[in-house]
Amino acid sequence: MTELPLYRTGIDPGWIDYNGHLRDAYYGLIVSYAVDEVMDHLGLDAAYRQRTGCTLYTLELHIHYLHEVKSTDEIAVQTTILDFDRKRLHAGCRFTCSRLNDPAATVDMMLLHVHQGATPASAAFPADVAAKLEVLKASATSRDVFGPASRKIELKRR
């Protein structure tokens, strides 16, 4: 498995709550920016979206808040391709910062490749993107130990 590049960000002071911690909603914002970089890495970038009318939509997202993120932290998000099929991508993201030994949070998400238009509809990944996903896909063992679980997100095979 090859790794996707890290997404890094500082914490905007406006993202901090009355307890001095990162507000819940900003984990979602940060992971959204991390996914933008994953899309660029896979070739699902702005030029692709313009040329094909296709993009990724988030179907489901689970956030596990494991440690407090403070205003002085810099966050690094490592995204892992946990699984994929011809239209869907199951990604996992780990939020880390140098102050902590363990992840500050994990995010488990299902994304769908969609052709936008008057009536958006799911669409198969192009062959070159599917090939990149295959190279990036985590092993079954890595998927099993990705992070804490609540209701499981997984690809149901038909």
Major sheet size, sense and barrel closure:
6 strands, antiparallel
Can you identify the CATH class?
Alpha Beta
Q: For the record, give the distance between the C-alpha atoms at the N and C termini, rounded to a whole number.
A: 25 Å
Number of domains: 1
- What CATH architecture label applies? Roll
- The low-confidence parts are none
The CATH superfamily label reads Hotdog Thioesterase
What is the residue-averaged pLDDT?
92
Structural class by secondary-structure content: alpha+beta
Q: What oligomeric assembly is this protein in?
A: single chain
CATH topology title: Thiol Ester Dehydrase, Chain A
- Helix content estimate: 25-40%
Shape: globular
What is the radius of gyration computed over CA atoms, rounded to a whole number of angstroms?
A: 16 Å
The total strand number stands at 6
β-sheet strand percentage: 25-35%
Provide the succession of SSEs.
EHHEEEEEHH
Number of helices in the DSSP assignment: 4
Describe this structure in words.
The chain contains four helices and six strands. Strands 1, 2, 3, 4, 5 and 6 form a six-stranded antiparallel beta sheet that branches. It has a single domain (7-142), classed as Roll (Thiol Ester Dehydrase, Chain A). The chain is 26% helix and 31% strand. It has 158 residues and is an alpha+beta fold. The radius of gyration is 16 Å and the shape is globular. Strand 5 (105-115) and strand 6 form a beta hairpin. The relative contact order is 0.22. The chain has helices spanning 24-42, 46-52, 127-136, 140-144, and strands at residues 7-10, 54-65, 74-84, 88-96, 105-115, 121-122.
